[in-house]
Specification:
Layout (H helix, E strand, L loop, with lengths): L2 H11 L5 H15 L1 H38 L13 H9 L7 E9 L8 E9 L10 E3 L6 E3 L2
Antiparallel strand pairs: 1-2, 3-4
């Protein structure tokens, strides 16, 4: 054999491994060391948590969608910072729709002096006679007390 033949055979044996072979070796080494297992457990846990939150949000949305009309007190709501334009009310009457108006605002409420006279931030909701368009309205004098049927 000549010197040229020897150099060519030496180049073939000293060739570095390809990128895929090197990546496979490193992955096998990391798996044996336990680092890759920890990563797999973390990814599995993250996917499980995201899936659980997604399922919970979907169930909540479906439940609210099912009971939305009862919660709203009607089929649709027109919301504004100003009074409802008369054109809306006239169009609803022309179409034979029942209309109820509400006004909601925060205020301060104060208990009578014989009950301590404490002040609290409250949400006041004033409603028209037609409210609610769906369901029933009950008032309670105290939390957990007997409900007085209004409509």
């Amino acid at each position: 054999m000549s010197q040229a033949d020897t150099d060519e055979s030496t180049d073939d044996t000293l060739r570095p491994p390809g990128p895929f072979r090197l990546a496979g070796r490193q992955m096998l080494r990391d798996f044996r060391a336990g680092e890759l297992r920890l990563l797999l457990v973390a990814v599995t846990l993250a996917v499980a948590a995201l899936t659980a939150v997604g399922f919970f949000a979907d169930r909540l949305e479906r439940g609210l969608g099912r009971d939305a009309r009862q919660l709203m007190g009607g089929d649709a709501i027109v919301s504004s910072d100003k009074p409802t334009p008369q054109a809306f009310l006239d169009e609803a009457a022309r179409r034979g729709l029942a209309v109820a108006t509400t006004t909601t605002f925060p205020s301060m409420g104060r208990a009578p002096d014989d009950r301590g006279g404490a002040s609290r931030l409250v949400a006041v909701k004033a409603v028209s006679d037609a409210y609610p368009l769906r369901g029933r309205l009950k008032l309670r004098r105290e939390p957990g007390g007997a409900g007085l049927r209004v409509r």
